[in-house]
Amino acid sequence: MDQDGRPVLNSYDHSAIAGNVEIGCDDLSPDGAVLYPGECLRQQPALISSTGISPNTIRDSSNIYGGLTTIGNAHLSLSQQRSPNTNAIIPIPLTEFATHIERQKLNNNRGFIQEFESIDTGQHFTWENSTMEVNRHKNRYANVVAYDHSRVILPPEDDEDGCLGQLPGSDYINANYIDGYDRPKAYIATQGPLPETFADFWRMVWEERSYTIVVLTRLEERSRSKCDQYWPSRGSSLYGSYKVTLMETTELAHYCIRTLRLENTRHRNEPGRDIQHCQFTAWPDHGVPIHPTPFLMFLKRVKALNPMQAGPIITHCSAGIGRTGAFIVIDFQLDRLRYENSLDVYGCVRAIRSQRQYMVQTDDQYIFIHDALLDAAQSGSTEIPNSKLLQHVQTLSRPQLHSEYTGIDIEFNTLMSLRVPKCYRATVANATYNINKNVKLTVVPWDFNRVELPRQFPKSVIDNNENGDDEGDYINASWIDGYRSRRSYIATQLPMANTVADFWHMLWIHECSIVAMLVKQPNEQGERFFVYWPSPGYPENYNGLNVDFVSEFDMGHYWLREFKVTDEAHHSRTIRQFQFIDWAVDCHGRAIGDVPLNSERFVDFVRQLHQTKQQFGSVGPICVHCLDGAGRTGTFIAVSLIVCRAQLEHVVDLFTTVKLLRMQRPNMVETREQYEFCYRGAIDFLSSWEEGC
C-alpha cells in the first residue's frame, strides 16, 4: 500500500517516492524497500478486472487535454487502443514490454519511427499570449510557444503609473502546466530562461511554491547558447524582487545538485525557501544518452529531494519540449508502473502534447523513453540505506522463498543476462591489425569510450598502408566514469611486450600518476607475467619516454613503487604504482581465486590509493589493471564508487554500480564471488567509517 492506501503492484521504485522528505528536512535517505532485479517483469497482473482495466485507474480517452478527471480516489486515463501503424496494443503489458521494444527496433527502428510520426503534434489550441507584441521577446524560440489553455499565468504586476496589476504582458512566461499520473499540474515545462525573463522565472518558482527545478541542458552545447545562467555562481544575486543565494553545490559525474535559497524582498516577513536545482549534465550535444542508467539515477534523486507538499516540479531544457518531454514521460510512466502492470508511452506523449506543443521532439527521444522504462523495470529497486546494508546482505545470502538461489545469485544472474545496446561497437579493438594487442578477445574496449593514443603517423600514411596496419591509436583500455566526475579511471589489461610502450605513453598523455595493479606473481597457471617496468638502476626508453625506477616500499598487503618518467622535452613526472598482493595462493605460491583474502585490507588499499592521488594533487585518471582489465579491475572500481556514494548519499547500490560499469567495459566484476566481495567491502567500509565519525 502507498501512503494513500492504494495497492502498489510494482514497488521497484519505492525508494524514490515523491515526498520522501519534508520541506526543510535534512534526512534524504530512502526507505530501502527492495524488489529483486527483473521481478516486476515477472509479476502477475494482479488487481486487473475482467475488462482489462485496473479498478484503481480508469483512463478516459475523451479527455483530450490530458487532464485528470477524478472518480473517487482514482483518475481517468486513456483506454486501450491500437497503434495506427504497428497494430500494437497500447498500453503494453509489462510482461510483453521487452518483446515489444525488440520488435519495434527491427529494420533500423522502423516500428518506433512510424509510431512516433503518427502522434499528433498537438497544434490544435491557441497561443495568442505568446504572440502578443509585448511578449514576443520573452520566447527563446519564435516557433516554440505556450498554449493559452495550459499556460502558467503569473500574478500581473503594476504599471508605471502604479495601477495595480495593469502592466501589459506581466502575467506571461513561456511555460505550461503538465499533468502527472495521479496529480494535475504535477510539472511545469518551460524554456531555458533568458536574461529578460530571469525575474519572471523566479517569480514563477515563488508563486507556484515549487521546490525542485530540473535542468536538462548545459548552458552551452556545440558552441551554441542553450540557456542563460539564471542563478549565481557564488554568493547572492537579485532578480527583480527575488534574491537567490547559492548555498551548496554537489557536482557528480552525470549531474549536479545545487541548493539555492530563494527570498522575496517584497515580503521580508516570509521565510526564504531552499530550492533544489538539479542539472543533468550527461545529455550529449547530439542525440540521446547512450545508456539510460545515469538518467534514471538522476530522476530517482530528483524524486527523493522533492518534498511531498511542494508545488509542480519545474523542468526545462533549452526549448522546454524535447528532453523536458522525455523526462516527464519517463517519470509519469514509472509512477503508473507502481499501480498498473502496463505502460503507455504512446498515449502519454499524445496527452502531454495537448498541454505543450512538440513535447518529445525526436524519434530518438521516443526510443530512449522506452529503453529507460525497460531498464528501470528490469533492474528493480536495489538502493539500500547504509544503516540497513548488513541486514540486507544477510538476507541476500540466504536462498529465497521457493528457490534454490540466493538473492546475490539472482542479482548477479540478472546482470549476466543484461545485453549491451546494439549500437555498441568494438570495431577498432577487433580490427585485424589490433588483435594481437588484446590479452583476451572477450574483453576489449567499446569504440565510444576507448582510450585513444596519438597516431604515430599521419592519417594519409595509414590509409596508404598496404598491410592495413594502423600503427596507431589503439590500446586495450576503456574510460570509466567515477562517482564525482566523468573519466575518473582507465581500465586496462596487463601490458604485454608489444604494448608496453603504448601503456607508458597512455599514462603520460592522459596524466595518470597513479596505477593500481591487481596481479600477483605467479598466476594461476604458475606463469610469470610480463614485467612492464624497469629494474632499479636500469632505465628503459619507450619510444621517447624514459622511465627510471626510483623507489619501492613494502606496505604489507601491497607494494608501492615510484617511477620518474621524462619525455624528449625533458619534462618529468612521478608515477606511483600500487601493486595489491593479498591474494590467496596454493602450496606452490601460485595465485588462486579472483578475490582478495581480506576485504578490510582491500578497502584500505582502495582508500590509501585515492588519498595519495588527492595528497599529491593529481589531476589525471587512476589507471587500474589486472590481467584482462575486467574482473579484479571492475571489483576495485566498484568498491571505489560504492564508498564514495555511501559517504555522500548514505546509500549503497551495488547492482546499479556494476551494471553501469559493464556498460562501459565488458565483464567488469566478472564472477559471482567478486560481486559478493563488493558487498563485504561495502560493509567493512561502513563499519570503519561509522566508528570514525
TrEMBL record:
Keywords: Hydrolase, Protein phosphatase. Residues 296-367, 600-676 form the Tyrosine specific protein phosphatases domain. It comes from the Eukaryota. It is an enzyme of class 3 (hydrolase). Its EC number is 3.1.3.48. PROSITE patterns: TYR_PHOSPHATASE_1 (PS00383), TYR_PHOSPHATASE_2 (PS50056), TYR_PHOSPHATASE_PTP (PS50055). This is protein-tyrosine-phosphatase. Signal peptide: none annotated.
